[in-house]
Amino acid sequence: MAPTKHLSRCPALSGLDFYLRPLSVADVKSCVIVESAFPEHERCSEEKFLYRLNQIPTLSIGLFLRDHSHSDRLIGHIIGMRSSTPVITDGSMLMPENWRSLPPGKPWTLGGQLIGNDPLGKTVAVHSVVMTPEFQGGGIGKAFVRDYVDYIKGNIDGERLALIAHDHLIGFYESCGFKNLGVSQVGFAGGGWFDMILPY
To answer: Is 79 domain-assigned?
Structure first.
C-alpha cells in the first residue's frame, strides 16, 4: 500500500473507504475504463497498459474505493515508466512492437532511439494521470499526485519525475511541486504539450 497522507485530508473523500496500491496486469481492464476520461486520441491502449504494467508495475499506482460486497473499484491511476532522458520523449511514450518476446529488463532501441521503458533510467516518466469524471474536482487529483510523489521519493531510486501537460494543467502540476520547462518536443496526440519535472 502507498501512503495516503494528502488523500486522507481531502474533504471530497470524507466518509469513503479508499486506498492506494501499485497496479498489476490484473488491473488492465479497469485502467482502460478509467482512461476513457481522456479524449480518445490521448488514451492508452489495453496493449500498452499490458506492456507498461509488465515492465515495472511499482511505478504505477491506483486509487481504489473499497466495496465490501463486490470487487473494489479503481477510480484513478498514475502510470509511470523509467526513462534515461530528463524529460518525456516520443520514444518513451511508445512500446516495442515485439515486447512480449524481448528479454525482461532489456532496453530496446529503434533507429537509435530508446523505445518504452529503460530499466536503468533515473527519470520516472509519468505517462498518465487520470481520475474518473465523477471524482474530478474537489482536490482529489491534486492529493493523489502529491501522495504519488511522496511514494516515489520514499521508495524508488531515481533523480526526478517528468510528465507532459496541456497548458491549462500547468498550474495544477506546479501546485504539486513540478516545474514548467516550456514547450515539449513530444508530438503525441498532435503535440502542444509542456515539459514538467520534479527533481528528488
So the answer is: yes
Our count of domains for the chain comes to 1
Is residue 61 situated within a structural domain? yes
Per-residue buried b or exposed e for 77-92, using 16+ beta carbons within 10 Å of the residue's own CB:
bbbbbbbeebbbbebb
Q: Within 13 A of 84's CA, how many CA atoms are on the CB side?
A: 12
Residue 89 in contact with residue 83, Cβ under 8 Å?
Answer: yes
pLDDT in tens, 102-130: 887 788 888 888 999 999 999 999 999 99
Residue 1 lies in a domain: no
CB 35 within 8 A of CB 27: no
Q: Who's near 60: CB < 8 A, 6+ residues apart?
A: 22, 23, 52, 53, 77, 78, 79, 80
